[in-house]
Amino acid sequence: MLERQLATKFRREFIKLFPDAFYYKIPDARGLGGQRPFDVVALVSCRFFAIEFKRGSKNVATPYQYHNLLIAERNGASIFVVNEDNWRYKLDQIEEMINGNKP
Question: Distance between CA 65 and CA 60 in Å, rounded?
Answer without folding.
Answer: 9
